[in-house]
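Propose amino acids for all 198 sites.
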């Protein structure tokens, strides 16, 4: 009975200690939101989530509008981060305070304590409300549709000019007809080419 009771007690203690460690490790990766103001006095909040691949989300508000951005990275690669994660995030917030806009200042965040760390350790911007806004008005498809819609009116404008084709366009039409049409159809070809060339 005693050995079993000891085993059960040890097992329960290990579970409790393991849970405590998990909670502590989660605290290091999920710090409480850090609040700061930019040079323009935008009120910002910084939240961290994840365990190895960390996600840093910054949300800011200013009179009449708000913006956000997200960074990802593996700061745990940096030894200094592992020894003092609070200091790391404090340095990140100091870097962001120096900007006029927390999401447009830098695409990569490199706190002093981890500047010499490998590239993967640095927090890189992966999303932003500004990038999303910039991508919306810039699709190429509507711009391509406009020339296609302009093409039929150009053809309509050419029809009145077809009655009096210029001699230069006539000779070009003849050349094209000689190159691309059979001899028996060259006259008809040059006529239609002349119509399209206007």
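Proposal:
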């Amino acid at each position: 009975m005693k050995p079993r009771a000891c085993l059960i007690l040890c097992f329960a203690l290990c579970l409790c200690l393991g849970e405590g460690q998990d909670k502590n490790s989660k605290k290091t990766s999920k710090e409480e939101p850090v609040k700061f103001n930019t040079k323009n006095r935008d009120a910002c909040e910084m939240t961290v989530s994840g365990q190895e691949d960390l996600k840093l989300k910054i949300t800011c508000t200013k009179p009449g509008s708000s913006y956000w951005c997200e960074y990802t990275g593996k700061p745990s690669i940096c030894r200094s981060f592992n020894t003092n994660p609070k200091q790391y995030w404090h340095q990140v917030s100091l870097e962001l305070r120096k900007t006029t806009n927390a999401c447009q200042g830098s695409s990569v965040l490199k706190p002093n304590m981890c500047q010499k760390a490998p590239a993967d350790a640095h927090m890189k911007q992966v999303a932003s409300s500004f990038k999303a806004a910039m991508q919306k008005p810039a699709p190429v498809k509507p711009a391509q549709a406009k020339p296609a819609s302009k093409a039929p009116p150009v053809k309509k404008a050419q029809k009145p000019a077809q009655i009096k084709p210029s001699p230069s366009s006539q000779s070009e039409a003849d050349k094209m007809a000689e190159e691309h049409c059979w001899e028996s159809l060259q006259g008809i070809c040059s006529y239609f080419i002349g119509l399209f060339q206007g």
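Residues 5-29, 155-166 have pLDDT under 50 and may be disordered. Residues 140 and 146 are 10 Å apart (CA to CA).
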